[in-house]
Amino acid sequence: MIDPDNELVRQARLGSQDAWTQLYERYRRPLASMVYSILRDYWESEDLVQDTFVKAFCNLSTFNGDSAFSTWLIRIALNTAQNRYQYLHTRGHYADLPERDERACESNIEDTYISDETVGIVEDLFNDFDPERAEILRLRFIQEHGYEEIASTLNMPLGTVKTHLHRSKKVLCERLQVLGLHC
After folding, report:
1. Of 129, 134, 130, residue with least CA distance to 33
2. How confident is the model at residue 32, as a pLDDT?
């Protein structure tokens, strides 16, 4: 499979600011949504996305193309978000926050990340799963990644990804049906 970002990555490596800007514009929102789902803090998420792109830019020469650029970028964002979550959690940042249903800067988040009510409902349902399964569901159903790409991104055996998806999808469908939505 040919990565649609290959040419932009090649140009960015040669110093093209326009190519890097195109990559940034392509992935900023999906990364912000993914990071927000982990940190549940709008401003922390925005900062972390910037950090992700700085790390990616500084390490662009190490990207070897064994996986898609998006997979590599998502892995950087996930690692950075998980580290940031642990840092904030150990310092009590999440102690006073309600359980994942109240959002800071709600109107900005809705304008930026939620395209319709159903996506919001599904995202909320994803948060009921353990973090690993929630991330697999997001990568598959929100970001539309294939099984192999999810396995590569999460550094997980393909069979494990398929099993988690199968079991989680069954539970997700049951929950959607309870809410009167079709799976």
Report:
1. 134
2. 86
Task: Specify the length of the chain in residues.
Answer: 183
Burial class (CB in 10 A: 0-12, 13-18, 19+), 87: exposed
Residue 138 has pLDDT above 90, yes or no: no
DSSP codes of every residue in 105-151: THHHHHHHH-SSHHHHHHHHHHTTS-HHHHHHHIIIIIS---HHHHH
Distance between CA atoms of residues 171 and 102, nearest Å: 24
Structure tokens at 4: 């649609």
Q: What are the φ and ψ backbone dihedral angles of 116, each rounded to 5 degrees?
A: -160, 170
- Count other C-beta atoms under 10 Å from residue 163's C-beta: 12
Say if residue 17 is exposed, middle or buried (CB neighbours under 10 Å; 0-12, 13-18, 19+). Answer: exposed
Mean pLDDT of the chain: 78
Q: Are 172 and 140 in contact (CB under 8 A)?
A: no
Residue 143 · residue 137 · CB < 8 Å: no
pLDDT band at 2 (very low <50, low <70, confident <90, very high): low
Q: Are 59 and 168 in contact (CB under 8 A)?
A: no
The residue with tokens 């396995």 is: 151
